[in-house]
Amino acid sequence: MKTSEFKKILKPLIKQTVKEVLLEEGVLSNIVSEVARGLSGQNLVLEGKPQTKKVNAEDLQKKAERLEEERQEKIRKLNESSKLGNIFSSTKQITESKPNQGPLSGLNPSDSGVDISAIQKIANGKWKHLIK
User: Fold this and answer.
1) What is the C-alpha separation between 62 and 47, in angstroms, rounded?
2) Domain annotation covers residue 72
3) What is the pTM of this model?
4) What is the DSSP string of 2-46?
5) How many domains does the chain fold into?
6) 110 in a domain, yes or no?
7) Contact by Cβ (8 Å): 88, 75
8) Is 75 a domain residue?
9) Residue 75: C-alpha distances to residues 12, 39, 66 (Å)
10) Alpha-carbon torsion 76, 82, 83, 85, what sign?
11) Range of 65's domain?
12) pLDDT tens digits for 68-115?
């Protein structure tokens, strides 16, 4: 028997068998529903008790100390690599302020700000004429 004759006999049999399996046994509907679930992007939610991690004050303190040590180490490495000496030596820490105190609440009150006297001299006191 030649392969072409063999294909001629087998092809309709396989086609009919696959059709029966997909439609009659519900395989196709299961495949479609699984694909639709995958495409919808819904996350599977398992019911159970929520896991709460107990926060210990000592653990928080240790973590804060460790983070401060890491910050100091980064500053030290930056100072060494810059070859400029301690570049943070002249900086001052910003004072803590209460929220909703104002737009400049995060700034140091002793900060003089930016000198704008040179801008005033540019217009020679004729600001009203420049606005129009």
Assistant:
1) 34
2) yes
3) 0.28
4) -HHHHHHHHHHHHHHHHHHHHHHSSHHHHHHHHHHHHHHTPPP--
5) 1
6) no
7) yes
8) yes
9) 77, 48, 14
10) negative
11) 56-86
12) 999 999 888 887 777 776 666 777 776 665 565 677 777 777 878 777
